[in-house]
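Course assignment 3, question 2. Fill in each field.
Student: A.L.
Task: Predict the tertiary structure for the chain below.
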Amino acid sequence: LTASQVGALTAAQLNSLSSTHLTSLTATQVGGLTAAQIGALNATQAGNMSTEEIGGLTTAQIKGLTGTAIRALSTVQIGALLPTQMPALTAAALTSLSTAQIDALSPTQLGGLTAAQIGSLTITEIGAYSTVDIASMSITQLSGLVKAQLNALAATQLDALANTQIPALSSTQLNGLTSTTINALTTNQIGELTPAQVGALNVTLLNSLSAADIGSLSTAQLAGLKTTQIKGLSTTTIGALTTAEIGALGSTQVHALTDTQIVSMTTQQFTALQGVW
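Answer field:
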């Protein structure tokens, strides 16, 4: 059969082909299959495609893969997908991947996913990302992570976020974090937040930071705090500020401090405060 003849087969005719017939098709013949025909493949047929056939599928054909077909692929077959093919996977196909299949995908393959595709992954699928996969995510891909996904990341996955990735998180993503999630970030990672990111954090998250995190904020990060944030800091958070940090506060920030906050300060903190009052 020529590629054109293969492309003319009906769904019924295609489904009548045995696994032997399907695997015997040449790359040229497989290339003749339409997206609709690819979509008509049953689980058995998809599961019997050779790695060469899978790696040779066009963008249009990849888009035709159904959730049933993609789920039927072995980890070896999944490993045959090219990074350039990954962007063509539909949300239905992506969300059908098992944790074993996700685990079988290399960081290079996962790197082919778009931000929109990343955002469509299930919590279970994101949970199957290795620490290497997390650290390998591009800035664009990180922007696709939604609130539920970020808060579902395990402590080891959060720890894998590189210092270059932390500054890329948007204010929406950061403010979507739970207290548990933000506390799972290391002090070094908190130290990578930009002044703009710190200035966008809601008061609840600021007050959720550990004493070590608060005490390690740089003068540049502190300068990002708005007066509304200053007013909302708990006495516990105020107590975690070092004398150097208090001394680095701007006059506008200092005048935003409430009486309760000032009274809660230690003698050393209050002395440092007088230097900028």
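Instructor remarks: The chain is about 60% helix and 0% strand. The two ends are 87 Å apart (CA to CA).
Grade: pending
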